[in-house]
């Protein structure tokens, strides 16, 4: 019998696939929920595959049964969708997660937010951007993250749920352009960040920047380290190999956290 059960929504995605491997340990059962096809369980893998949408309230409530923590990765993870899609999938979807966790008595939710929740903050002032910087979303996607963070705050204050919102930078195997040199989150550090969020005692409500220990970082890692995160990777290792960022000739985008997401043409007008 597992000592700890963790539900991961969006488990077929890039980060979900990583966490399926990195969070596995004796005495821990992973419930892997996604509508997308996932690889079959390997011999000895202590996990359950659940084919369902996190928008399905009844399926979500069943998946939350006897769970110690929910990691909510599911949702629209980039720009290019409509406002209605972000509202239904990202905002209402987060509400469904929080409410299912509350009803099932799950004590902790870890929410995959994004640095795009604060994408209009300048990154060229020389000052470190604090952990609880006021949101300045750069897109409809960013707004959906801010709204979801607010729901997380509400469920902590109203229902006592422990919630950690991770404002994830650019998660990838290695930096792909110069912009990513400040906000890269390596696979190894991503695994360490989520493990810290699972295991830190009684976190309450937290907003945490999710990046590696990058030399060019412009955001604080104080709150991340306070929950036990100890990053080991640095994007500077790849600085001589990456291509110029695509928005290098556009100073407004280059000098803002959100980069190209801040462009006036990035989102289609709402219908």
In short:
This protein has 271 residues and is an alpha/beta fold. It contains eight helices and nine strands. Helix 5 links the parallel strand 7 and strand 8.
Description:
It is a single chain. By secondary structure, this protein is α/β, with parallel strands linked by helices. It has helices at 14-22, 57-63, 83-104, 140-159, 180-183, 187-199, 222-226, 251-254; strands at 4-9, 28-34, 47-51, 69-72, 108-114, 162-168, 170-171, 184-185, 205-210. It has a single domain (4-262), classed as Rossmann fold (3-Layer(aba) Sandwich). Helices cover 31% and strands 17% of the residues. The strands form two sheets. The chain has a seven-stranded parallel beta sheet, with helices on both faces. It has a two-stranded parallel sheet with strand order 7-8. Helix 5 (180-183) links the parallel strand 7 and strand 8. The protein is globular.
What is the average per-residue confidence, as pLDDT, rounded to a whole number?
A: 94
Could you say which structural class the secondary elements and strand pairing correspond to? alpha/beta
For CATH, the homologous superfamily is named as NAD(P)-binding Rossmann-like Domain
Largest sheet, if any? Answer: 7 strands, parallel
Proportion of beta-strand residues:
15-25%
CATH class (first level) name: Alpha Beta
- The CATH level-2 architecture is identified as 3-Layer(aba) Sandwich
CATH topology: Rossmann fold
Helix and strand element order: EHEEHEHEHEEHEHEHH
Q: How far from one another are the termini?
A: 51 Å
Widest β-sheet, arrangement of strands: 3-2-1-4-5-6-9
The best one-word shape is globular
Count of separate DSSP helical elements:
8
What's the number of extended β-strand segments? 9
Task: Provide the low-confidence segments as ranges.
Answer: none
Tell me the domain tally. 1
Radius of gyration: 18 Å
Q: Helix proportion of residues, in percent?
A: 25-40%
